[in-house]
Amino acid sequence: MNHFWENHFVQTAGYYSVVILCMVVFLTVFEMVTKYKNWEEIKNGNISVAMATGGKILGIANIFRYSILDHDSLFMMIRWGVYGFILLLIGYFIFEFLTPKFKIDVEIENDNRAVGFISMMISIGLSFVIGASIS
């Protein structure tokens, strides 16, 4: 049975499945902390929400990329991926806190593309820092 779990195709399918599941859970958490409904806004054509959500998706995937590369068990990969997500979530709250002149969520909901873009870049940028530190 060990040969089955050591097969690269099986490992890839396992990592892929777990990351997809984590991605759904993590995006649900982001949906709960934002004041707008991500998927409803995207459906309505809100580019700012699409950019911010896309940055979160890429950020989460990038964190798991580093986690997969540097940890030899599925359990450790999940652990570090969850930890990285928590750090990414904290970064979201810090971004909101550091912009007292306006509310990030309100600006993104109003399709302020500059704020949506910077939100996307923060998520992606932090994911590289988090990923490098967990590997």
Automatic annotation (TrEMBL):
Q: Which UniProt keywords apply?
A: Cell membrane, Membrane, Transmembrane, Transmembrane helix
Q: How does it sit in the membrane?
A: Multi-pass membrane protein
Keyword NADP attributed: no
Q: Which Pfam families match?
A: DUF350
Its main subcellular localisation, reduced to a broad class, is membrane
- Cellular compartment(s): Cell membrane
Q: Does the keyword Thylakoid apply?
A: no
Please provide, in alphabetical order, the Gene Ontology terms of the cellular component aspect for this entry: plasma membrane
Which branch of life, at top level? Bacteria
The residues that cross the membrane are 13-33, 45-68, 74-95, 115-134
- What InterPro entries does the record point to? DUF350 (IPR007140)
Family classification: Belongs to the UPF0719 family.
This protein is called what?
Answer: DUF350 domain-containing protein
Q: Which species does this protein come from? A: Heyndrickxia camelliae
